[in-house]
Amino acid sequence: MNSIKDTYRTILKASEENLYKDKNSKFYGYAFPVLTESDVKIHIETLKNTHHAARHWCYAYQLGTETFSYRANDDGEPSNSAGMPIYGQIQSFNVTNILVVVVRYFGGVKLGVGGLINAYKTTAQITLEHSNISEKTININYLISFDYKNMNKVMRIIKEKNLNINNQVLEMDCKITISVRKKDAQSIFETFNHLFEIDIKKI
């Protein structure tokens, strides 16, 4: 039984816009797949241009598949009344490499901290419920280097093990990049490493 965790949950495309209303305030929720903080900034700037008349653009994101980094931003709302309730939903849905933004138009009636927490949490929840969440595998990439004469030996293993080839250069000096699920990575490495005149390294 292999107990290595090598899957994670994320979204592959941006959600639709989701609207939640409370006492004349409107909360628009969005979810985006992101891999870097630069991706986050681009989506925030785009929404600020789209909703230039809004009062707050609150958000939370989580990045990573094994070690995680996250940020929650209240954007002018009372401390921990917006960003953390949004981040709480990211944790509840167990998703990563994701940004959830809630844009608020103030309706003239104050909601109080409790009301804000509920509104941001609910909007984030609705947004994630309407997002297409997928399970993906954590993969390890290896570079296999060998002489052309050893091609059949290498290709036979790739076929037997049903490995994904990312890239290949098949000349006198051959190089093949393969992608392997994390839980299978060590055994695949050892299989190639034991072969004479075959070099394998993690990239």
Automatic annotation (TrEMBL):
What Gene Ontology terms describe where this protein resides (cellular component)? Answer: cytoplasm
Signal peptide, first to last residue: none
Kindly give the InterPro entries that the UniProt entry links to this protein: Impact, Impact_N, Impact_N_sf, Ribosomal_Su5_D2-typ_SF
The cross-references to Pfam families, in alphabetical order and at most eight, read: Impact_N
Impact N-terminal domain residues are 23-126
Q: Which GO terms are recorded in the biological process aspect for this UniProt protein?
A: regulation of translational initiation
Belongs to which family? Belongs to the IMPACT family.
PANTHER family listed in its UniProt record = IMPACT FAMILY MEMBER YIGZ, IMPACT-RELATED
Q: Provide the protein name.
A: YigZ family protein
**Native species:** Flavivirga rizhaonensis
